[in-house]
Design brief:
By secondary structure, this protein is mainly beta. The chain contains 4 helices and 11 strands. It has helices spanning 20-23, 38-44, 184-187, 192-197, and strands spanning 72-80, 91-95, 121-125, 131-137, 142-143, 150-151, 154-159, 168-173, 201-202, 213-216, 219-220. A hairpin with a 6-residue loop joins β5 (142-143) and β6 (150-151). The protein binds fe (iii) ion (FE).
Length: 233
């Protein structure tokens, strides 16, 4: 026989989700005309601003209490448009494997060791001269699934433009890497000049005697000398 409902203990009130207040919007919603097409909305929508990028975001070697393993390097360059003008205030994001060639991602099947002191993601904004600069660890090469080949050392780059729809994604390679001729992604870039532009140059003048080695990689966002991107031009 079923007990009367009145004798059942009262259900406990659901505990408030502790993360809800943190994730709740703190600013009023932006006005939005539903008749506007999505592309136009994206061009006028909010983007990352100067206050969203901290100084330490560009130093991937200082994001954890300990020091990451591997060779510290500096990667700098300038972002220009087709006319050679510097692109200022550009959000530049990078992500990469650690020194052993493993990403801090649960789906990375590479048996190389993880590094608890290296996440492998950073960002900065270009200055008034279009310059960006990162301090990081030289990434290791890693094998592709299925043992087809190895990917040479590389750093993934994203340039956001002035809206999310203008995002460009590409990769930077290191000079002298013996794996460059065997990389499937680099081989998919048909123009040798485009492939050449994806390889950084060693910057001896910036490599301090006891400091990190420096690499320079300049980027052109559009025009005939545009840096190759993964979506095409
Ligand atoms: Fe990669």
């Amino acid at each position: 026989m079923t007990a009367p409902a009145s004798s059942a203990p009262p259900s406990p009130a659901p505990a408030p989700y502790r993360g809800a207040p943190e994730r709740h919007p703190r600013r009023p919603p932006l006005p939005f005309d539903p008749g506007t097409d999505p592309e136009t909305v994206e061009l006028t929508g909010p983007v990352f601003g100067p206050s969203d990028v901290g100084d330490l975001d560009a130093d991937l070697t200082r994001q954890h209490p300990g020091v990451p393993l591997g060779e510290r390097i500096i990667v700098t360059g300038r972002v220009r448009d087709r006319a050679g003008r510097p692109v200022r205030g550009q959000l530049v994001e990078i992500w990469q494997a650690n020194a052993a060639g493993r990403y801090a991602h649960r789906q990375d099947r590479n048996p190389a060791p993880a590094d608890p002191n290296f996440t492998g993601a950073g960002r900065c904004r270009t200055d008034d001269h279009g310059r960006y600069a990162f301090t990081t660890i030289r990434p290791g090469a890693y094998p592709l699934p299925g043992e087809r080949t190895w990917r040479p050392a590389h750093i993934h780059f994203s340039f956001f433009g002035s809206a999310f729809t203008q995002r460009l994604v590409t990769q930077m390679y290191f000079p002298g890497d013996p794996l460059l001729p065997y990389d499937e992604i680099l081989a998919s870039v048909p123009d040798p000049a485009d492939r050449h532009r994806l390889v950084a140059t060693y910057d001896h003048a910036r490599s301090l005697p006891a400091g990190p080695l420096a690499y320079r990689w300049d980027v052109v966002l559009d025009g005939p000398s545009a840096t190759w991107t993964e979506e095409g031009r």
